[in-house]
Specification:
Length: 258
């Protein structure tokens, strides 16, 4: 700082207190310029208070308070939509992400700003919807939403979003896949099978699943129909299953009561 007094050496009192600690003398004041430095202040996370008091040569007192805010908590992206490596058949897949941070003061200076939004390297911020608010007193957040105006091509799509605030810059980088082609499933020829025969054994149905992009398939189900195309029963179902060779087993008890 700088002491605006013609004769710094004549000051009766020139002290500081940091975060309500005991008063300490401010030393090493330059007698010509009045400049001084206070060293070895250990700032805490959040609000810090520096108090300075002085009395000049003719007894005039002066006080000054300075609030210094330290925020080392970085912004964090969350609520990715779609999620990393998500597979979708929606060529107009909505894309969104949210950035959050904490702050220690009620001021618009703590708000988060979305500075860029790219889809496959193309800037799309002007076509996106951005919300930047402070939830309560100490929770700034910013959310960007984008729905493609043109259909996305099949394949991988890369998203890059950059946000900036008083604690620095943060980025959200992720990708997802658009796949509009249905997977294929081929089943090996089945031999005649009678589940009601004495000592009937379980029957294995072998099949191969494939997809042009995904190594995993979702909502796989095997259903049994009669010769007239009427549904008989569900043999098996899987939430996810890998592409390639697979099999399902029919137990004879599955046909009891049919």
């Amino acid at each position: 700082g700088k002491l605006n007094y013609r004769i710094p050496a004549k000051m009766r009192q020139f002290e500081y207190s940091f975060n309500f600690q005991a008063w300490q003398p401010i030393e090493n004041v330059n007698n010509e310029s009045g400049e001084f430095a206070i060293d070895d202040l250990h700032f805490a996370e959040g609000q810090n208070l520096l108090a300075i008091r002085s009395i000049n040569a003719v007894g005039v007192p002066y006080h000054q308070l300075m609030k210094i805010i330290v925020n080392t908590i970085p912004m964090q992206p969350s609520k990715f939509n779609p999620e990393q490596n998500y597979m979708t058949n929606n060529v107009y897949q909505p894309i969104s992400v949210e950035f959050n941070k904490s702050t220690y003061y009620e001021d618009v200076a703590g708000k988060i700003q979305i500075v860029s939004f790219e889809v496959d390297g193309s800037p799309m911020l002007s076509a996106a919807s951005v919300t930047s608010e402070i939830d309560g007193a100490y929770h700034p957040y910013a959310r960007v939403n984008y729905t493609p105006g043109q259909p996305l091509q099949d394949g991988e799509h890369n998203i890059l979003v950059t946000a900036k605030s008083d604690v620095g810059v943060s980025q959200a980088i992720w990708s997802f896949f658009v796949d509009t082609q249905a997977p294929t499933i081929s089943i090996e020829a089945l031999q005649p099978y009678s589940p009601r025969a004495p000592n009937a054994q379980p029957l294995s149905i072998r099949y191969k699943a494939a997809d042009n992009l995904s190594t995993f398939l979702k909502d796989v189900s095997l259903k049994l129909y009669d010769s007239n195309g009427n549904f008989v029963t569900r043999i098996a179902s899987y939430d996810t299953q890998s592409s390639g060779d697979n099999y399902a087993t029919i137990d004879p008890s599955l046909f009891e009561g049919l």
